[in-house]
Amino acid sequence: MSYCVAQAGEAHTIAEIVKQFIIDAAITVIGEQFSNILKILPLSNDTVSRRIHEMSRGIENEVTT
After folding, report:
1. Do 51 and 4 contact (CB within 8 A), yes or no?
2. How far is it, in rounded angstroms, from Cα 14 to Cα 49?
């Protein structure tokens, strides 16, 4: 999800909104048990920002080595 947020150039807080849509869809399609797993995914602004930064460092390392 962090990759998609970075590609979209949207605010990192959009991940929390998208997460809720995914949880609602999982409840409807798969059931409550799987949605509980999704609820523990950390998608705070800081987490998404850190993951995007880590992805960019990984790409930079690949390009420069």
Report:
1. no
2. 12
Express each pLDDT in 9-55 by its tens digit: 666 567 777 787 888 888 888 888 877 888 877 777 777 778 888 98
* Alpha carbon distances (Å) from 25 to 5, 42, 43: 19, 18, 17
* 1 within 8 A of 19, measured Cβ to Cβ: yes
Residue 37 confidence (pLDDT): 81
Q: How far apart are the first and last CA of the chain?
A: 27
CB under 8 Å to 62, separation ≥6 — which residues?
none
